[in-house]
Amino acid sequence: MIIVFLASLVLIALCILWLPAWSAALLLRRMGVPQPHRVLRVVMPSQLLVAAALIWAADATGLTNPAGYSLAILLLTGIAGAAIVWRQRRGNV
Predict the structure, then answer these.
(1) Cα separation of 48 and 77, whole Å?
(2) pTM of the predicted protein model
């Protein structure tokens, strides 16, 4: 039972992390931008590494609310990834 709970937490965390960038790529595709998903091959693993490093650093500094800072880091990293994908619209990536 604990495995199902942990797996669902990981799935929810990945959705929070990757859904903004994926949504931006889908929106760009609907706008007619050629190959908007190409940048996701770089952005999504980078988001995962940055979020893991920031969560580890926050834990190492001794912050007292792990759920709060983990959620904030996931949300802000997801929004930053969406901004990077959105910049592809102008060819700045």
Answers:
(1) 9
(2) 0.87
Integer Cα distance of 10 and 18 in angstroms: 12
Give the whole-angstrom CA distance, residue 51 versus residue 63: 16
Backbone angles phi, psi at 92, to 5 degrees: -90, -5
Alpha-carbon span 58 to 51, nearest angstrom: 10
Listed as ranges, residues in the chain with pLDDT below 50 are none
Q: What angle do CA 84, 45, 30 make, to 5 degrees?
A: 45
* Count of CB atoms situated within 10 Å of the CB of 64: 6
DSSP structure string for the chain: -HHHHHHHHHHHHHHHHHHHHHHHHHHHHHHT-S-GGGGHHHHHHHHHHHHHHHHHHHHHTT-S-HHHHHHHHHHHHHHHHHHHHHHGGGT--
